[in-house]
Write a structure and sequence with these properties.
Layout: H1 2-26, H2 34-37, H3 39-46, H4 49-63, H5 79-82
Helix pairs in contact: 1-4
Length: 83
């Protein structure tokens, strides 16, 4: 049971990390204001409660297909299928 909880936390945390890194990179694109206002402004703009809620929900949705539950079993591609 403890292994499943740690696995879930790691997988959801990785999805949240990817979400935030994507938002932060977007602040430094041509249309973003990160180049003009700086890194600290970009971090303050990205790390908001709303963005955290979106990241947490996206992380849980992204973790759901890997749990092996009956409703998502058809979404998981096994290694044998790939090889």
């Amino acid at each position: 049971m403890k292994i499943n909880v740690w696995r879930a936390l790691i997988e959801v945390g990785f999805i949240v990390f990817l979400f935030y890194s994507n938002l932060l990179m977007g602040e430094f694109e041509r249309s973003g204001m990160g180049m003009k206002r700086g890194v600290l402004w970009a971090i303050e703009d990205v790390f908001t409660i709303t963005n955290f809620e979106i990241a947490a929900i996206a992380g849980l949705i992204g973790y759901a297909p890997t749990t092996g539950s009956s409703w998502s079993g058809s979404l998981v591609v096994s290694r044998a299928t790939v090889l």
